From TrEMBL:
It comes from Phyllobacterium salinisoli. It catalyses: Hydrolyzes single-stranded DNA or mismatched double-stranded DNA and polynucleotides, releasing free uracil. Keywords: 4Fe-4S, DNA damage, DNA repair, Hydrolase, Iron, Iron-sulfur, Metal-binding. One of its GO terms (biological process) is DNA repair. It is an enzyme of class 3 (hydrolase). Its EC number is 3.2.2.27. The keyword Iron applies. It comes from the Bacteria. Belongs to the uracil-DNA glycosylase (UDG) superfamily. Type 4 (UDGa) family. Residues 38-189 form the Uracil-DNA glycosylase-like domain. This is Type-4 uracil-DNA glycosylase. GO terms for molecular function: 4 iron, 4 sulfur cluster binding; metal ion binding; uracil DNA N-glycosylase activity.
Amino acid sequence: VAIAREAAGTAATLDELRERLAAFDGCNLKFTAKNMCFSDGDPLSDIMFIGEAPGRDEDIEGLPFVGRSGQLLNRMLAAIGLERQNVYIANTIPWRPPGNRTPTPLETELCRPFIERQIELADPKVLVALGGPAAKALTGAQEGILRLRGNWKAHSTPSGKVIPVMPTLHPAYLLRSPAQKRFAWRDFLAVKMKLRELG
Ligand code: URA
């Protein structure tokens, strides 16, 4: 973890961070994944979405949220007047865990310095945590996502800047439980209002 922190913390740009991550051999997930999924969208965006880990389609394409979950995310973005290419998208873990298993606590800790630095360098005004693992990783909150969602939390960057985080339901969960979409819709509207408020 110390090596990950050093590699991530000293990256001066997002391109450099991507190179450092690609060269980082400390996390075993790298060796079973086909591709690294660093980000998609616009790194200069005011809004950054963070999911858990790539799935099968993401692993094949090397981009986050390009499978069914991503298609739903695109529609959710459109519903609040945003387009995918105008937001920044990443995952807490950049490599697909084999068979989509849950990342282990060690894997999560090894990847954490990279996503933290990625947030710091992208410097969005607002973060949206897609699902419980992302919400937990970004805010340290221990409650389940059904309790957390809809309530603003905070993410502190390594340099101490505080960024508002909206935890919401993961698109993959919404595909299984479409009746819950109304809650995500509310959360997305809250994000839109926050962005307007922040100017
Ligand atoms: N689920 C995630 O959390 N991230 C992706 O990139 C795809 C599915």
